């Protein structure tokens, strides 16, 4: 096809328009050149033509938008991101059914944010037409992201995610006030600020005229957030129109890196200007004589401000305020004096780090002064919401754990009763899962190529001061060496590494920060980086660690061929880190005058330093260029622990250089030792399970009603970290999960109690012996591995009546805090209704492990290794037969899985399927016998996964019972 055809097709794929038959307008454009016209087959050929880059880019973008659309009438009854939605799109484009499969293969659905929402009391208002009419600030923000080298796909996904949030807010022109309250759940250091900046841009385009961004409780974070919004959204013209010159010495301001709007909003009536009520150097102050700054302009005084005639020409006010009682009180006091009627002002409140200070998660054991302060902050936010009837509240957090959803009184004010949006994990993001091996590799099989732990994690196990100094030196050497590698990469054409930092986090106490900082200063002087004596030590580290990891994890980054090539850059790295007063900067709540050191300002200059701190560096604040982390602090709260994961984030061009030095034997109460790496892994797994549950039950049921609403969400997470708050689930929630059924989808039941004396293991084995006696056949089943390669496994199998399976699983005991009852209710209901008659039970036989003799049992059985979680971190096991589950889901009728011909032959409409796994779980002194046999039933655990028949619950169902009628509380954080 010609370029003319490509251009004609691409023009019919315009941004913001619905899918329509593409053939007729294309032929109209090409009438002169192609009088006989193209056929729909020709159009499909263009869509699939790799050389038609512009067409493919445009179609990918449009399909992404159309797949996610949730308010336009053309979607009919289809749900976002569903196969039915994609088929609807193809039909509207005029593509025949026989082309759908090939189109799907070439343009797969990308997915999107997961949304849990209550039904809204209004018709959709944030339509594509509304978005096209008012998009000045969103277009400007997109331009900024493109200039930052965001690719089109990433910007497109942000567009979808922010639209999902904004259309769940109330229409700012709505005659009746309505407060929508929601929560956006991201990942630690994963770009939440980019999301809420996009939401703010779209919200002010849509008509919101007062924007209040609540940051954390420290000024360094508030200032960082203010500057980013100023630089990427407010823009030079709006900043210059004010009286403040807070960026006079800012390097990016001087270099012209702040957003320059295409049209100066201060010189036209068509675009509203933005007026800043705070600056990068000053939090909110009482306006006093300048109170008119909050007086909103109106064109027609006979109409309210929220009328479109007044609203769109009116300028925007934006305040970035830290969660501090004094600042918030000043804002509340000024709002009470505003001349404009408060119930007419469409306001947007963005609460960044919403689980910090905004709600009352007070531990009664804490000091009384902290109780008063935190409660007072919550009270001020509630008062702002009370004053501004049109205020929309959106909380942002990276820790979707229980303390976000607190007691009944708080839930009246900031509980996200309207929506929860769980953001996708960004592609280049380096998060918790990237530092752990969640697929349960055997330790002997781990290499830097297949193990995140081997690649990025270095243990801290010092038992004496000498060992501790050696570990600190290795971390410091790693910091210098990675700095040298970055400079080497710059010399080979890599983008400049403006910042290079190391974070040391050992304590929350300021006095201890001084001692730690002095330790690293002394170590810096004695390490000899400016002398030849350090080179042999650094060469050994490079050869044993960084050269090995970068070879398998370095991607396209340039790597030195030998240490000799790297030598010249070590001195340069040492010089950059040594510049200024000291290589170490202490970052905590103490006054800067208390330290003789350089200021920490990532905006004003490049920072190559070692940062020592605690709380100030553990929530919200972005540590730019972070490469080496030295972490040994223990905390007693799960969300706080996750927030300390400053090593999460985007690491462009140096992902392979990141190292986490983490305490494996950190002292705690009563002399106990805590493994912080395992603690993090437990939280990462809990968070992953929570997000998986949100995904399963997002959307609507067959009646068009939400499967779950935000009030139902907290009971869906299994969180078993006994030494972290919150603890037992029966103390956490106002709603009980009482029914959970997903037809054709397997669930692993691994949450077993600690081994103890092994008697529970023995009882579990006895419970499943009736199932084992029915396994009288053997055959081969298929599954798709993690590399999308079809593989097979052999299993014994048999058909067992459903009531026999129910009797067996009823005898199992479960970990404290985990409840089998919702699953049992679904199981028994399916049996009683005749939708479940029997189970195909499978016992896989590993290819590389021979069956073992079992004491008291007449035949050998396969015993596999599965990691038991240690009680201090998480009970139960890490998995059942993860990959082999394809077979049981196929047998149970899942249309998405292929377990091979035998699985298909075993399928019946009323048949479920179950996999049994026996996992090594010996007493410490019996390990050898557990591997070789004969084995006592006390020394292995019985694990299982099962899938209900797809026909029993084809759409899935989840049910709740409210504990206390009339309350919005879901969590008791005590």
From TrEMBL:
It comes from the Bacteria. Pfam families: Z1. Residues 474-719 form the Putative endonuclease Z1 domain. This is Z1 domain-containing protein.
């Amino acid at each position: 096809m010609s370029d003319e055809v490509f251009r004609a097709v691409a023009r019919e794929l315009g941004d913001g328009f619905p899918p329509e038959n593409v053939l007729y307008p294309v032929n109209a454009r090409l009438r002169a050149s192609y009088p006989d016209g193209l056929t729909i087959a020709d159009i499909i050929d263009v869509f699939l033509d790799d050389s038609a880059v512009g067409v493919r880019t445009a179609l990918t973008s449009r399909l992404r938008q159309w797949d996610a659309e949730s308010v336009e009438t053309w979607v009919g009854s289809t749900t976002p991101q569903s196969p039915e939605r994609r088929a609807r799109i193809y039909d509207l484009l005029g593509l025949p059914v026989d082309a759908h499969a090939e189109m799907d293969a070439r343009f797969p659905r990308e997915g999107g944010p997961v949304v849990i929402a209550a039904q809204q009391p209004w018709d959709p208002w944030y339509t594509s037409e509304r978005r096209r009419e008012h998009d000045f600030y969103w277009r400007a923000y997109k331009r900024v992201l493109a200039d930052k080298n965001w690719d089109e796909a990433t910007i497109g996904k942000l567009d979808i995610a922010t639209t999902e949030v904004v259309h769940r807010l109330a229409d700012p022109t709505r005659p009746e006030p309505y407060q929508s309250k929601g929560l956006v759940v991201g990942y630690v250091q994963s770009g939440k600020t980019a999301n809420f900046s996009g939401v703010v841009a779209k919200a002010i385009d849509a008509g919101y005229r007062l924007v209040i961004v609540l940051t954390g409780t420290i000024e360094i974070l508030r200032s960082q957030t203010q500057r980013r919004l100023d630089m990427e959204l407010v823009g030079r013209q709006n900043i210059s129109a004010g009286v403040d010159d807070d960026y006079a010495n800012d390097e990016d301001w001087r270099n012209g890196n702040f957003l320059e709007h295409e049209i100066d909003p201060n010189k036209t009536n068509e675009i509203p200007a933005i007026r800043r009520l705070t600056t990068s150097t000053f939090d909110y102050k009482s306006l006093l004589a300048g109170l008119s700054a909050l007086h909103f302009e109106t064109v027609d005084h006979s109409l309210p401000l929220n009328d479109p005639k007044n609203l769109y020409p009116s300028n925007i006010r934006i305040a970035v305020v830290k969660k501090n009682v004094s600042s918030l009180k000043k804002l509340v006091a000024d709002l009470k004096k505003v001349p404009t009627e408060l119930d007419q002002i469409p306001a947007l409140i963005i609460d960044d780090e919403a689980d910090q200070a905004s709600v009352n998660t007070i531990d009664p054991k804490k000091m009384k002064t902290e109780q008063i302060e935190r409660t007072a902050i919550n009270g001020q936010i509630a008062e702002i919401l009370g004053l501004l009837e049109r205020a929309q509240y959106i909380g942002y957090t990276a820790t979707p754990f229980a303390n976000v959803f607190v007691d009944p009184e708080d839930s009246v004010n900031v509980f996200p009763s309207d929506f929860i949006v769980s953001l996708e994990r960004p592609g280049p993001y380096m998060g918790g899962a990237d530092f752990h091996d969640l697929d349960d590799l055997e330790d002997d099989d781990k290499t830097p190529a297949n193990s995140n732990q081997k690649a990025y994690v270095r243990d801290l196990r010092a038992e004496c001061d000498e060992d501790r100094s050696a570990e600190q030196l290795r971390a410091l050497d790693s910091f210098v060496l990675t700095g040298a590698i970055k400079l080497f990469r710059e010399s080979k054409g890599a983008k400049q590494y403006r910042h290079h930092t190391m974070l040391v986090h050992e304590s929350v106490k300021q006095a201890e920060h001084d001692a730690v900082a002095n330790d690293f200063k002394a170590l810096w002087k004695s390490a000899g980086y400016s002398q030849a004596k350090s080179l042999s030590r650094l060469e050994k580290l490079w050869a044993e660690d960084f050269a090995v990891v970068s070879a398998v994890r370095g991607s396209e980054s340039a790597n030195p061929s030998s240490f000799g090539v790297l030598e010249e850059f070590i001195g340069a790295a040492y010089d950059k880190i040594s510049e200024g007063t000291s290589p170490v900067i202490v970052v905590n709540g103490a006054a800067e005058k208390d330290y003789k050191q350089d200021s920490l300002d990532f905006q004003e200059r490049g920072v190559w330093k070692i940062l020592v701190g605690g709380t100030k560096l553990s929530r919200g604040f972005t540590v730019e260029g972070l490469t080496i982390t030295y972490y040994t602090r223990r905390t007693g709260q799960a969300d706080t622990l996750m927030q300390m994961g400053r090593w999460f984030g985007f690491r462009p061009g140096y992902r392979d250089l990141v190292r986490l030095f983490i305490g494996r034997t950190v002292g705690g109460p009563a002399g106990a030792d805590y493994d912080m790496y395992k603690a993090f892994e437990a939280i990462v797994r809990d968070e992953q399970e929570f997000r998986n549950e949100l995904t399963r039950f997002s959307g609507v049921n067959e009646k068009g009603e939400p499967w779950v609403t935000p009030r139902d969400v907290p009971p869906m997470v299994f969180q078993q970290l006994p030494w972290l708050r919150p603890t037992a689930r029966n103390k956490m929630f106002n709603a009980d999960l009482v029914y959970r059924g997903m037809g054709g989808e397997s669930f692993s039941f691994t949450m077993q109690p600690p081994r103890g004396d092994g008697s529970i293991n023995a009882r579990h084995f006895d419970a499943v012996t009736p199932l084992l006696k029915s396994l009288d056949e053997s055959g081969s089943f298929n599954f798709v591995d993690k590399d999308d390669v079809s593989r097979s496994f052999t299993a014994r199998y048999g058909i067992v009546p459903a009531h026999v399976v129910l009797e067996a699983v009823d005898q199992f005991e479960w970990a404290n805090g985990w409840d089998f009852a919702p699953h049992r209710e679904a199981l028994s209901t399916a049996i009683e209704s005749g939708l479940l008659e029997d189970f195909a039970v499978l016992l896989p036989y590993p290819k590389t492990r021979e069956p073992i003799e079992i004491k008291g049992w007449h035949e050998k059985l396969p015993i596999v290794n599965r990691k038991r979680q240690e009680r201090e971190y998480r009970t139960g096991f890490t998995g059942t037969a993860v990959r082999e589950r394809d077979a049981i889901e196929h047998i149970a009728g899942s249309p998405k899985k292929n377990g091979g011909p035998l699985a298909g032959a075993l399928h019946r409409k009323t048949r479920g399927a179950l996999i049994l796994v026996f996992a090594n779980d010996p007493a410490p002194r019996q390990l050898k016998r557990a591997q070789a046999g004969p084995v006592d039933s006390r020394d292995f655990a019985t694990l299982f996964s099962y899938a209900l028949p797809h026909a029993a619950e084809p759409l899935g169902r989840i049910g709740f019972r409210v504990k206390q009628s009339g309350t919005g509380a879901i969590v008791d954080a005590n």
